[in-house]
Design a protein that fits this description.
The protein is α/β, with parallel strands linked by helices and 329 residues long. It folds into 2 domains: 2-173 and 221-258, Rossmann fold, CATH 3.40.50.720; 174-219 and 259-298 and 312-327, UDP-galactose 4-epimerase, domain 1, CATH 3.90.25.10. It is built from 11 helices and 14 strands. It has helices spanning 11-22, 56-66, 81-86, 88-109, 142-160, 189-198, 224-239, 241-246, 266-277, 301-307, 315-327, and strands at 2-6, 26-31, 45-48, 71-74, 113-119, 164-170, 172-174, 204-206, 218-219, 221-223, 255-258, 264-265, 284-286, 295-296. It has a 7-stranded parallel β-sheet, sandwiched between helices. A 3-stranded mixed β-sheet has the order 12-9-14. Helix 5 links the parallel strand 5 (113-119) and strand 6 (164-170). Helix 1 (11-22) crosses helix 7, helix 4 (88-109) runs parallel beside helix 5 (142-160) and helix 6 (189-198) packs across helix 9. The two termini are 33 Å apart.
Amino acid sequence: MAVLITGGAGYIGGHVVSLLRERGDDVVVVDDLSTGIAERIDGVTLVTLDLAAEGSEEKLAKVMEERRIDAVVHFAGRKQVGESVERPTWYWTQNVGGLLTVVRAMESTGCRRIVFSSSASVYGVSDAELLAETAPTSALSPYGRTKMVGEQILDDAAAAGTLDPMSLRYFNAAGAASPLLGDTFVQNLIPMVFERLDAGESPRIFGDDYPTEDGTCVRDYVHVLDLARAHLLALDHLAGAGERRAAGAPPSPTVVNVGTGVGSSVREVLAEVRAVTGDPVEAEVTARRPGDPPRAVADVTLARDLLGFTAELGLHEMVDSAWKAWRAR
């Protein structure tokens, strides 16, 4: 399979590139390297391109034609919630404009299959114990709303018969398959804690008065290597879309959660960090952050039944591998 990966020099993208190469697929990466790291994908064809820039559609289509691309995995985009609130129009340009560039290039070259990097942020605040794909979507930030609209764009293209899409709603990715592929984005909880420890400062808990067992927010943390495996399973599922369509089968679901189905509180994550690092520093409790839901844990039934995906790695493996990657920087 020839796969084009936008944002493939990023944290999650780099893991997917690595797994695809291991199984012998032909991989091309398109990345503007604004946050990606080229060394993560050493030996892979890299096309440096801003998908939201003028003329990018034609350049992307040319790459797709030359490499006879069978499928696309679209990671490229911006992901900082706070930044999206401060620069909403730029986020729409980058995230929605970039996706439209990819969709138009695919349609012009006849490439149908796309796996889209979506987010559990589309659910907003919910009282549900587990979030199923059928739960209402009500994103709280421009970032989350760009993901909602991205899913809708792909669903519309599927209804028009031009694309076979699958949007993967990620929960909280953590860990690393190797030091080179570690998470350098210090807006995520575990790298944020590591950064504070390195500075000799207490990790922060943003609110301990939530309606959860220990008062801190509960999230579904999924090892990035498990998340990367889900992308390969999604690509393989989409590879059979034409055959299913010819057989008159009903359309497959186009949105799938990727998580573990198990929640961990902030305090539980910090306890694991202390166990792994040996650092005894206690956390400092500060005010809540606006818009943080008390709980966000995936219902993973569809991922299991449709893709055959079940997460294999737990919180200890996430924190331990993330710490090893952090220390090796």
